[in-house]
Amino acid sequence: MADKIRVTVWHEYRHERNTEGEAYKCYPNGIHAVIKDFLDKNDDMDVRIVCLDDPDQGLPDELLNNTDVLLWWGHGFHGEVNDELVDKIVTRVYRQGMGFIGLHSAHHSKPFRKLLGCTGNLEWGDNIKEVIWNLNPTHPIAAGIPKAFELEADELYSEPFYIPKPDDLIFGAWFEHGNIFRAGCTWARGLGKIFYFQPGHETCLSFYNPYVQKIITNAVRWAKPVEEPIDETCPYSGKGFLVSETVRFD
């Protein structure tokens, strides 16, 4: 792993291009640009931003293979992501320990669904007031986060949320209509770590919130690969131990 955490922020970047729309008013340079701006304040991070409409859908092999943590924001165009690229992302997480952070509507993205083997389905509604509760204050991703903080508005996401049982449930959301949601969850898959974080609708200002920024920053540091990944060469091969050379992701 490089001295700095090599962070790639992947974004559809379609909604904000409509200069007459609400998404443009919130994020005139794109959500990915705002995320890069606050992550760039950290000396231990090297941040790149890419988009769905870039060559190779933003993730050519050279870039993907030199990414320690991949942040993913998708919403309306999940189906356009190439299945071959999804397989490469899953392999990077499972085999090389790349971290994956799914933001907001990434719960329906192809990489998230394939990494966790789930639909990612949930209930949703209008943009309303949300309170994020810190349910696991000793977790590294929750460092520096208060017991609770308020977002003036974000898209209502509600249980049931069809995901595997999280390894750690770090944040819970309460919405003003009474709905609740598992808003911050982690999983380990192969050598990689995965974090899902709910706030971040394109017509809401959540990515400007200092606590949201702190959580994402903490998550990047948590999700980075281990310094010395496991050597896949098994010293017991041929000595009565059955060692499988095949790993399936589906």
Q: What secondary-structure arrangement, pairings included, does this model have?
A:
Elements: E1 5-11, H1 22-26, H2 31-39, E2 45-51, H3 61-64, E3 69-73, H4 83-96, E4 99-103, H5 110-116, E5 123-134, E6 148-158, E7 168-175, E8 180-189, E9 192-197, H6 210-223
Explain the overall architecture.
With about 250 residues, this protein is an alpha/beta fold. The protein has a domain at about 5-115 and about 180-225: 3-Layer(aba) Sandwich (Rossmann fold), CATH 3.40.50. About 20% of the residues lie in helices and about 30% in strands. It contains six helices and nine strands; from the N terminus they run E-H-H-E-H-E-H-E-H-E-E-E-E-E-H. It has helices spanning about 20-25, 30-40, 60-65, 85-95, 110-115, 210-225; strands at about 5-10, 45-50, 70-75, 100-105, 125-135, 150-160, 170-175, 180-190, 190-195. The chain has a nine-stranded mixed β-sheet with strand order 2-1-3-4-9-8-7-5-6, sandwiched between helices. It is globular.
Question: Uncertain runs with pLDDT below 50, 5 residues or more?
Answer: none
- Radius of gyration equals 18 Å
The coarse silhouette is globular
Series of secondary-structure elements, N-terminal to C-terminal: EHHEHEHEHEEEEEH
Average pLDDT confidence is 93
Beta content: 25-35%
CATH fold-type name of the domain at 5-117 and 181-223: Rossmann fold
